């Protein structure tokens, strides 16, 4: 029988590709778990009083090609002017070998944060490269593996300065008046909640203030002026003031390092090392400090450690997850960093090497010298005499200059009084200098660039004592991969060391490691999205704004809120922004005393850390034996807080993997006492299309676009954490000091760019557009089905710690390993490491309950892959029984010795199990080989070494 045309068009093709199990497999799984229909299964799990009858989003699904064509039409509305605006953002050339083999490679972008170092040695090495670049360019002793952006790095520097300052009674932070305005904006927002006073003035006047705990200086000021701060830093240091300095990688290639100047903390953006502007991000910030302050640093640090056999191995240092351990006492709430972008920047340095970087930096500076000489020779005046790449030019006819720039499709910096700013970059060509000269002078002139080049080389701008004297990047890694063949092989060598979604399921609970479809990823490298400066005129970003507005609308509908703010560039930033909105709302009603935040004991560690950053007092609410919020304890503590109750932070479904039946009652209790409900969006993948936070009764949520809405984790970042809010909170979400838009408020910013990491938003746009409203609901439903399938098949071998009233779980389940450890001595760590031998990344280990494994399969995993994982877990359970029966001794068995590496096969084999059992427990097909044994964590904690592996231990 001939099919009708409507069936041949296949608009749901992507939905079926995104969701792993097909209709027939779903029926098999339903039968296995004792359910008749998927809809009935969901109805039996999700509390009836919060269920929606259908997806709230009426958007139809479409094919990949249709969605790409729609988005291409929108992208075409962006105008690709050349932007010489600067202010921390510049055009770049991304080396094609890095673009294709790193940024566009799922082996790099689908990996998870390297919490399991044995399956992460490749990206750990790449991050160590980034740290080494940071150390050498800043001249500091310890560096992190990236922060979110330059402005938030400045805020972290301010908070760190207060922590380490010996002037504990001091409460003022001094900011030089030529700091980038977006950085100052974020500093003011953060300082307000910390209770710090911000003073903005000429840098040299900092010594006049007596109550300073720290200062923030910018090496090359926002208008381009290059500063010699050595004398000022020496004086302030003598007074006990902590010195933080903003800098920029490309300038530091030529300039004396801030460390040599005496700075205590150095931060900035690595965007110019090959990462496109992308309308504001994502870009990796760098952060470095002195050895004495290393334990106070925010963020992630990669350390050189060793495995249990004494071999060199890399891992993340202790403070990386300290917000989960110390909670409200944490140094920072940072959870997501910018690993993918840090790896790009680090590889940019590997590719170009010290000679190539110096050539690029000198070329940028030389072109700036030539332009400066041209305009001075023709009667215009420069505002500053020392600079690296940025000129501020005084102009009498500013409006006419900007009009000429518009005619030449160029953007100059336009917010300066009677002046324009021009920042040159590595893409600058000779013809650009001619065009810029004509724009500034208002007439065509005949220029001999080579003659000007000869002239300016005789008169250097940067004084000798501000030039870098020592060699940089002498380590072999920066000096041997300069042919594309060698670079390609180096990138592949590192990729092979890691386990990413292109090789196996990553069953991490609370992390939602789902498919990042190629069609979703394609638009991020389109020049229409990649090339825009975040502070270009909004009319040039019409396509971006349309895309952001559409995505915002879809997310508003899917969350049941009234408004959305797209600025927060991580989940933790979203938490912070949402709590700020709550605090501002209370203050607008003259209830600024409301500062108590109730947080369930099961909450993510970032929740209490974010509350502390927002100036709140954290009070923990107990959970009952079933893992639910203890309503009696909640009522008691809400009543005790009374008029000081600000909010509750609750995750739904709970972090314990169940839909709490009393969630609406929780909201009602908090609202009764005048508080607001913050619903953490970490588990939104179990809500989309089924219910909404707004319908449940929450007031604000952040959304992890890098979980639920398919932005890839990138090995530990980027992320996006926009917040949805009810109407009464909408006026209090973050705004921006530079860009005005109907999508922004008048409030202070939390991120450097107005729309956070805007260039990755097309990923979520594509996902929602291709799935459509019903497809999204189906995705959530299958995610729940997959989790219950795993729980059902494993419950005879492992205890499922928490279930709902019907004995079901939500989208993830917690396997309790504690009884096995008590009976046999095998721990959750042993199981996690043994899974590597079976070719899997471990589930989330010991969170939210110590001694457990939390499994989240997502909707994207096929029945075949689910069964492969289940079979591995059942086989491991049988191995545990071998230990229990004494067949294998507790101190020498495949679990405690896991993971096993190739080298062991060559050694004398003395174990009571075979080599085949060790390395091929699941057969030889698609074997993943870890390159190191289990890490020696005690050694790593006691020996913090965070720069490139010594040359003697380095193997190219």
UniProtKB/TrEMBL annotation:
Gene3D superfamilies: Aspartate Aminotransferase, domain 1 (3.90.1150.10), Type I PLP-dependent aspartate aminotransferase-like (Major domain) (3.40.640.10). GO terms for molecular function: glycine dehydrogenase (decarboxylating) activity. Its cofactor is pyridoxal 5'-phosphate. The glycine cleavage system catalyzes the degradation of glycine. The P protein binds the alpha-amino group of glycine through its pyridoxal phosphate cofactor; CO(2) is released and the remaining methylamine moiety is then transferred to the lipoamide cofactor of the H protein. It catalyses: N(6)-[(R)-lipoyl]-L-lysyl-[glycine-cleavage complex H protein] + glycine + H(+) = N(6)-[(R)-S(8)-aminomethyldihydrolipoyl]-L-lysyl-[glycine-cleavage complex H protein] + CO2. Keywords: Oxidoreductase, Pyridoxal phosphate. It comes from Rosenbergiella australiborealis. The modification N6-(pyridoxal phosphate)lysine is found at residue 707. PANTHER family: GLYCINE DEHYDROGENASE (DECARBOXYLATING), GLYCINE DEHYDROGENASE, DECARBOXYLATING. InterPro entries: GcvP (IPR003437), GDC-P_C (IPR049316), GDC-P_N (IPR049315), GDC_P (IPR020581), PyrdxlP-dep_Trfase (IPR015424), PyrdxlP-dep_Trfase_major (IPR015421), PyrdxlP-dep_Trfase_small (IPR015422). Belongs to the GcvP family. It holds the Pfam family GDC-P. Its EC number is 1.4.4.2. The glycine cleavage system is composed of four proteins: P, T, L and H. This is Glycine dehydrogenase (decarboxylating).
